[in-house]
Design brief:
The complex is a heterodimer. Chain A is mainly alpha-helical. Helices cover 83% and strands 0% of the residues of chain A. Helix content of chain B is 77%, strand content 0%. Chain B contains 9 helices and no strands. By secondary structure, chain B is mostly helical. The chains are: A mainly alpha, B mainly alpha. At the A-B interface, α2, α3, α7, α8 and α9 of A face α3, α4, α7, α8 and α9 of B.
Chain lengths: 216, 221
């Protein structure tokens, strides 16, 4: 009952929830991804192969199926968390794999000469890594990393499938009440766009700046 | 409390054949969505390289579809459009939603491929007296397509995974099949291990095929 316009504050509230969920997931994904991405390039072959295999699995299964895997998998191993925990773990793992790929790619894309030059001026391999390679890799990864934010926001929509109240679930509620699915989901699309687009623009700006820097 | 989790392998294996029809359905959605995505992608990419009003429209399309979740687009098409008088079946809505979104991604990939074609290729064509449209069709596009293949291959795998979204509107593909079997059994986790394994296998086959295509295109000069 009522029209969709009066439900707009409710949808706005849900957008805040979506944003909060996305921020928690991106923070966790960054911890996972940066850790794994850099570790993978540092530690031995066997560990790197394991990490690559895990990334491959995470990237090869749809995030919706991963959500159910975590949902049923955690209790199977005797771990009980609520749906929020499940959604956050599943999305963070999936995004973590993406972040890991981004940072790994950035580290591996640095010219070999950087390592050689660092060694030539007498730095230890570890010092070259921390003081020469990592800072550059972080900068190189930035545009792609910022562009992860819209990806994460979009991924949180799936949390609605296991009953997390965020923008998608809230709009389904409103759609069921008002029966005006067209306008409700239209508004939801608009709100999602407003959440994602600023990050897309920032990512693109950083991208442009870094290519301008490298081609000069 | 599940004190001694026992992985029920026999249950898992017994139910693998149940996924046969579901895999076929997922592949049908995949092919329909891919067809839509390729058409949309090529049209948008071409529109974006013309310097007309069309370029602006195509850019807006790409931005809108890339900055909103596929799930919400699907709901809008499946639940929302009937209000506006457009009735479409779950299969068509699902394939359309996936195809329209991935079309935006393919457009970006192809646009990158076009931008990567060296300028002298175009100049050479024009110098030979070809029309700009001929240069585009016969010189730039073939090279652009080849440039786009690696990224397009990755996108194919993502498109395959996105077929799981149509489970939310009741199409019995792999994910929904897994959900229904999981719900009426005590071995829910095992079922989703099967689901995961099926997707991994399909993704692997698909990326191998894409890699093969890339090699074939590289040697077909």
């Amino acid at each position: 009952m009522g029209n969709v316009g009066s439900a707009l504050p409710y949808l706005l509230q849900a957008s805040v929830m979506t944003l909060r969920l996305a921020i928690v997931c991106i923070v966790l994904a960054t911890v996972i991804g940066v850790g794994v991405g850099f570790l993978g390039a540092l530690v031995g072959r066997a560990a790197e192969a394991t990490i690559l295999a895990v990334i491959y699995i995470l990237r090869g299964i749809p995030i919706l199926a991963q959500l159910f895997l975590v949902y049923f998998g955690l209790p199977f191993f005797g771990i009980f968390v609520n749906s929020y925990g499940v959604a956050i773990i599943a999305i963070s793992l999936n995004m973590g794999a993406l972040v890991a790929e981004i940072f790994r790619g950035a580290l591996l894309s640095l010219p070999r000469a950087q390592m050689d030059a660092g060694l030539a001026i007498g730095l230890r391999p570890r010092q070259v890594l921390w003081k020469v390679l990592l800072p550059q890799a972080l900068v190189a990864a930035m545009p792609a990393y910022v562009s992860m934010m819209p990806v994460t926001i979009k991924a949180t929509a799936l949390a609605s499938v296991i009953g997390i109240w965020e923008l998608t679930l809230a709009s389904k509620e409103i759609a069921a009440q008002t029966l005006d699915t067209f306008r409700t989901f239209g508004y939801a699309l608009l709100l999602y766009f407003m959440l994602c687009y600023p990050f897309t623009l920032i990512g693109r700006y950083l991208e442009r700046r870094s290519t301008a820097f490298h081609s000069s | 409390m599940n004190q001694n989790p026992r992985f029920d392998l026999s249950f898992m294996l017994r139910h693998v054949p149940d996924f046969g029809p579901a895999i076929l359905t997922a592949l049908e959605v995949f092919i329909a969505a891919l067809a839509i995505a390729l058409v949309v992608g090529v049209v948008l990419a071409l529109a974006r390289v013309t310097r007309t009003q069309l370029a602006w429209l195509a850019a807006a399309y790409v931005e809108i579809f890339r900055n909103t979740p596929l799930l919400m687009q699907l709901y809008f098409i499946f639940f929302g459009l009937p209000i506006a008088g457009v009735m479409i079946s779950p299969f068509v809505s699902g394939s359309a939603a996936i195809g329209l979104q991935h079309g935006a991604f393919f457009a970006e990939i192809l646009r990158g491929g076009i931008a990567a074609v060296r300028r002298d290729q175009r100049e050479g064509g024009l110098a030979l007296g070809m029309l700009p449209s001929q240069v585009m069709r016969q010189i730039v596009l073939p090279q652009a397509l080849r440039n786009s293949l690696p990224a397009a291959g990755n996108q194919l795998v993502l498109l395959l995974q996105d077929t799981s979204f149509v489970s939310t509107i009741g199409i019995f593909e792999i994910t929904l099949r897994g959900q229904t079997i999981a719900e009426r059994s005590a071995a829910s986790f095992e079922m989703f291990v099967v689901v995961g394994a099926i997707y991994l296998l399909l993704s692997a086959i698909l990326s191998l095929a894409a890699r093969g295509l890339e090699f074939a295109a590289a040697y077909a000069r």
